Amino acid sequence: MTIQERINNWVRQNQNNGIQLLKKLIGEESVRGNEQKAQAVIIEKCRELGLTLDIFDIDVNEVKDHEFFSCDRKDFQDQPNVVAIWKGSGGGKSIILNSHIDVVPEGDRSNWTNPPFSPEIINGKCYGRGTTDMKGGTVSLLLAIEALKHLQIRLKGDVIFQSVIEEESGGTGTLATVLRGYKADGALIPEPTNLKLFPKQQGSMWFRIKVKGKSAHGGTRYEGVSAIEKAYKVIESLEELEKTRNDRISDPLYNGIPIPVPINIGKIYGGEWPSSVPDLVSVEGRIGVAPSEQGDKVKKELREKIDALGEDDSWFKKNPPELEWFGGHWQSSDLPEGHELLLALTSSYQDMLHTQPIIQASPWGTDGGILWKAGHIPVVIFGPGTTEVAHDSDEYIELENMFQCAEVYAQMLVKWCGISTEH
Amino acid sequence: MTIQERINNWVRQNQNNGIQLLKKLIGEESVRGNEQKAQAVIIEKCRELGLTLDIFDIDVNEVKDHEFFSCDRKDFQDQPNVVAIWKGSGGGKSIILNSHIDVVPEGDRSNWTNPPFSPEIINGKCYGRGTTDMKGGTVSLLLAIEALKHLQIRLKGDVIFQSVIEEESGGTGTLATVLRGYKADGALIPEPTNLKLFPKQQGSMWFRIKVKGKSAHGGTRYEGVSAIEKAYKVIESLEELEKTRNDRISDPLYNGIPIPVPINIGKIYGGEWPSSVPDLVSVEGRIGVAPSEQGDKVKKELREKIDALGEDDSWFKKNPPELEWFGGHWQSSDLPEGHELLLALTSSYQDMLHTQPIIQASPWGTDGGILWKAGHIPVVIFGPGTTEVAHDSDEYIELENMFQCAEVYAQMLVKWCGISTEH
User: Fold this and answer.
1) Residue ranges in chain B modelled with pLDDT below 50
2) Domain Peptidase M20 dimerisation spans what residues (chains A, B) (predicted)?
3) I want to staple A277 with a disulfide (CB 3.0 to 4.6 A). Which of A216, A397, B222, B344 is the partner?
4) Chain A to chain B, count of Cβ pairs less than 8 Å apart?
5) Rg of the Cα atoms in chain A
6) Which of A31, A132, A209, A220 is the best residue to mutate to test the B interface, defined by the most B CB atoms within 10 Å of its own CB?
7) Helices (H), B14-59
8) Burial of A206 (0-12, 13-18, 19+ CB in 10 A)
9) What ranges in B90-205 are assigned the alpha helix state H?
10) Does residue B326 come out as left (phi exceeding 0), alpha (psi in the -120 to 50 range) or beta?
């Protein structure tokens, strides 16, 4: 039997290991600030696999001055990062397998058919918050390591598995691994690409815009200026900016993507009293940054668009909306064309799945931006799960895709790190 | 000296009493649930005036089944209503002087030039939350009583001064006074009419509309449906409804008022994460009800308008916005034309201010609706302060207007209740 066949057989015979691990991980509600229990599941699994563990709380003083630090969380205590190392015998290329444990909030629970943190398997899909983004990918990585361990394959290069916190809020977890000294010849991140390969990824930044109004009694609302109405003007102007920005994009890796670098308004809040005209509304959103763009220029472009509102609106002229950049700022990444990391993954994909992979630029940022820009580590994003259901209610993962990825990852480790003949 | 002259003299010589009382009342931040300390100021003043006090906590069980009860507050303990009675010698008409002690929240503090609960007097205006709505009017009422007491005028009819809680949230404070048995031949409420007389008043109701979207990752926002975008469609449709409703109004008391019965959107909130497409946005607002309208028909009209969104929007068809009526529901009031209460107030106004008052319908509801519909007490609204600044930042009252009203109220008590010759 070839190694590919042995990997394939082992994964197929041990699917239940993966399913049980996934269910355990989904059951732990690892929203921001509550990552500990899901990390405990990871730690238990890594111990079982005989990996060398480095479990550490992020010290805010060690990350806060880094140029890519962008985070409004000040305390990471007891919510550790986990790094688990499978030391190679030497002489091979090393790889970082980076996966985040944090999940976004579940949204309105009434939109979920089943409770978001009680995983259910229906017709080959496992449902729950974090199945696609990205605990399914984490399971694929760990299954790949488990397969090689059980098949008694010894690698030459080091495998550095990282289960990090804070990806959804700006990447401080991964930044901390870089600053702790973790490096490798390449990195793979199993974010939900729906089995596409993403050698380039979009960056993104969070903004908050505060829009002023003039309060008045609702019974004479014509004496006030509604900050809700004014916020809508701001949102319309952001829609125009999104169009302008996307019309400029010509990278063929974005072919067929409706809006390559979207501006998303994710949150709105303002006003305090039904009978008062609201005098302050805040909107929070995310702007996508193309791999070729500089974050500072994008910030300037958005500021100018908002300032332009004052040109034909005297209220905005006197009361320009406040713009803040806060929380997450994901760096883009840009693997050079023809890089050996992409070639190795492409051929591993072909070996195991017997088709050509689709290669695109990602519609979102990942921690790959931090690995690339802060760690200078070549990165490729490839994983099970689909963006359509990430961050949505009734998020799910196709279990078959999770197993396919496990097989490709195992083969990738064999190809990239090399097999040792020592025992 | 005529009584009018004696009243005028006393008020002019004792303006400082009124200013000190106003400052004390503004200094107590009597937002909902925190009315106690401002009521203590009222109680102290009423004791000083020798009025008979009835200080009582509202028992929710005694009000909750009344048809005009509309309140989401379940506990009124230690935040009392205050009723202070100046018993007449008999044979005159009685009057309720009703004023509310609660104030709306101060909004964004950065919009205030001075802190909202630290009153400042600048150029004859006293600034602070509640100056206009309606602690200034409360001071006018108490000054009027103080003037008559000091002038040793004895009235025939009873004067029932009421300092109630909960006006801003639906009138439960005043409803409790009615259910406790307080009645009178007429009632006067010193809400900020800018010295106009309002024999009719608009009712109003609060609504909450929940608008659904479909969540998705912000990087592929085109795979979701933004509840923020959909909420704006709802708001636009409410603007249309406002227009339709106001085009129907022909009451001459509304002449010159830009929007007689406005629909105000006071609050918006939704979305949880800048990088997610929001799947739920709520808007809260107030709809004005004309004196001639039935609340139930207004509710139906709003429901139908929202349902109509589904006619040409398949998202709304599948996901009709939820509509709730909550919190405040202010009743309208409608004093019959030529009523003696309005005639007495009009002539008192002429006696003291030597001009004709402007008579209109009010742009908002007051507790007068409860007195009228639940207590069957004829009501007129007339007070210092202006709607423009009520509920706004830098709310203020012209002190001169506060004293003018005190004079008119004193004269009104003399005319309405009659003077006793007993001592």
Assistant:
1) none
2) 201-312
3) A216
4) 248
5) 23
6) A220
7) 15-27, 36-48
8) buried
9) 136-150, 172-179
10) beta
> Residue A299: what residue type?
K
Test A388 with B220 for CB contact under 8 angstroms: yes
Total Cβ atoms within 10 A of residue B373: 19
- A387 and B273 within 8 Å at the Cβ level: the answer is no
Mean pLDDT, residues A121-130 taken together: 98
Shortest CA distance to B270 belongs to which of B225, B238, B240?
Answer: B225
Nearest residue of B to residue A235, measured between CA atoms:
B229
Asked if the Cβ–Cβ distance from A268 to B228 is below 8 Å, we say yes
**Torsion sign across C-alpha atoms B273, B278, B284, B285:** positive
Chain A residues in contact with B218 by the CB 8 A cut-off are 204, 262, 264, 266, 285-286, 364, 391
User: Which residues are A54's β-sheet partners?
Assistant: A83
- Residues on chain B touching A277 (C-beta within 8 angstroms): 264, 266, 391
pLDDT tens for each residue of A326-341 = 977 789 999 988 999 9
Q: Which two structure tokens, joined as six digits, stand for A59?
A: 């010290």
Across the interface, of A269, A288, A363, the residue whose CB is closest to B269 is: A269
Class of residue B243 by CB neighbours under 10 A (exposed 0-12, middle 13-18, buried 19+) = exposed
Domains within chain B, CATH numbers bracketed = 3-201+332-417 (3.40.630.10), 203-329 (3.30.70.360)
Examine the residue annotation and report whether B54 is marked as an active-site residue of this protein: no
Q: How far is CA B114 from the centre of its chain?
A: 24
- A365: chain B residues, CB-CB within 8 Å: 219
Known catalytic residue at A296: no
Please name the residue of chain A whose CA is at the shortest distance from the CA of residue B387. A217
Report how far residue A239's alpha carbon sits from residue A227's, in angstroms, rounded to the nearest whole number.
Answer: 18
CA proximity to B245, closest of B288, B214, B286: B288
Catalytic residue among A35, A106, A166, A167: A167
Q: CA-to-CA distance for A71 and A75, rounded, in angstroms?
A: 11
Among chain B residues, CA nearest to A366: B219
| pLDDT 10s digits, A45-84 | 999 999 999 999 999 999 999 988 988 888 999 999 999 9
Q: Which two tokens stand for residue B190?
A: 């010193």
Which residues does A214 contact at the CB level (< 8 Å), separation at least 6? A224, A225, A277, A279, B392
Measured over all CA atoms, what is the biggest interatomic distance in chain B, rounded to whole angstroms? 84
Token pair for A68: 């890519």
Nearest to B78 by CA among B34, B144, B47: B34
Q: What is the C-alpha to C-alpha distance for residues A130 and A144, in angstroms, rounded to an integer?
A: 20
Q: How far is CA A411 from the centre of its chain?
A: 24
Chain B residues with CB under 8 Å of A259 CB are 221-222
What does the alpha-carbon distance between residue B333 and residue A178 come to, in Å, rounded to a whole number?
70
What CA–CA distance (Å, rounded) separates A68 from B158?
Answer: 74
Whether residue B218 and residue A387 make contact (CB cut-off 8 A), yes or no, is no
User: Measured between CA atoms, how close is A390 to chain B, in angstroms?
Assistant: 6
Task: Work out the number of other CB atoms within 10 angstroms of the CB of residue B333.
Answer: 30
CB–CB contact B327 A365 (8 Å): no
User: Does the interface ipTM go beyond 0.85?
Assistant: no
Question: Tens digits of per-residue pLDDT, B124-144?
Answer: 999 999 999 999 999 999 999
Contact: B219, A286; criterion CB under 8 Å: yes
Nearest-CB residue to B266 (from A104, A202, A218): A218
Q: Look at A274 and B207 and tell me if their CB atoms are within 8 Å.
A: yes
Say if CB B149 and CB B47 are below 8 A apart.
no
Question: pLDDT tens, B51-78?
Answer: 999 999 999 999 999 988 988 888 999 9
Q: How many residues does chain B have?
A: 423
% of chain A beyond a pLDDT of 70? 100
- Picking from B144, B177, B175, the residue whose alpha carbon sits closest to that of residue B413 is B144
CB B209 within 8 A of CB B307: no
Q: What's the one-letter identity of residue A258?
A: P
